[in-house]
Amino acid sequence: MELILPVPETASGELDDATLIEHYAPPPEATRWLRVNFVSSADGAVEVDGNSHALSSEDDMRAFRFIRMRCDVLITGAGTVRTDGYQALRMSPERVEWRRAHGLPDHPVMAVVTRSADLDLSMPLFTQAPQRPIVITCERAPVERRLAAEEVADVLVAGDDGVDFATALDLLEERGLRQQLCEGGPHILGELTAADLVDELCLTLSPVLAGAGSGRITDGPSSPLRRMRLAQALHANGNLLLRYIRLR
Ligand SMILES: NC(=O)c1ccc[n+]([C@@H]2O[C@H](COP(=O)([O-])OP(=O)(O)OC[C@H]3O[C@@H](n4cnc5c(N)ncnc54)[C@H](OP(=O)(O)O)[C@@H]3O)[C@@H](O)[C@H]2O)c1
């Protein structure tokens, strides 16, 4: 056991942006990488009043933006898109500059996972996206909804009764989208864990107790334990920003 606390009263080494960005570099040997990013209360709640905003903080958002900046594709479940008010995925000028310097397109692609394909296609996420979004769905989704989605997005069908996530990630990789970031929600994380596809979990533990009533960061049918190693722990104003990487 190793002592990493107490947390210093005053910051002993505030990380500048460039250093913080480096702390979120994926392993250099990884040709494809699925990172999942969540924030939770200290007592494990995934939402307060229906969304995750109250759990987040400036420090969490700082890391959140840099994590997004690194990805080729941002994958989100339709449930989270509905509750958390997703906007078009657009990088700030500074982040566009960083991406260009690293050989990346200006903006990542947004991919929404849905079984029903019952999406509000008038959302800015679709209508104002700088990169044509992707809808990942399955054969069960009504054809007329899939056709409607094709007006504003590329539609990938990956599975019959539900999306098969291994197939979906392969299809994204075939499009050159190798740095894959998933921001949930819980049902998507449950599926990814069940399929043993999570390479990394970034988890911010927020210094609040949310009390009873909320679910965890994962939901759905149970799955076997997936062993992870703690690769990084950052502290910022009581928030713990943890990075777990899958043990292979
Ligand atoms: N704290 C955090 O970091 C964080 C992050 C994300 C979300 N959240 C919270 O989590 C809550 C939403 O949770 P959620 O679990 O409902 O959201 P979710 O996992 O984002 O979305 C669930 C939806 O994803 C689609 N889906 C799931 N599995 C599928 C499969 N195998 N095939 C095809 N589609 C599939 C379905 O969409 P259709 O209904 O369209 O078929 C399903 O209703 C919100 O309160 C949100 O604020 C918190």
Automatic annotation (TrEMBL):
GO terms for molecular function: 5-amino-6-(5-phosphoribosylamino)uracil reductase activity. InterPro entries: DHFR-like_dom_sf, RibDG_C, Riboflavin_Biosynth_HTPR. One of its GO terms (biological process) is riboflavin biosynthetic process. Transmembrane segments: none annotated. It holds the Pfam family RibD_C. Residues 32-234 form the Bacterial bifunctional deaminase-reductase C-terminal domain. Keywords: NADP, Oxidoreductase. Pathway: Cofactor biosynthesis; riboflavin biosynthesis. This is Riboflavin biosynthesis pyrimidine reductase. It comes from Stackebrandtia endophytica. The lineage of its organism: Bacteria, Bacillati, Actinomycetota, Actinomycetes, Glycomycetales.
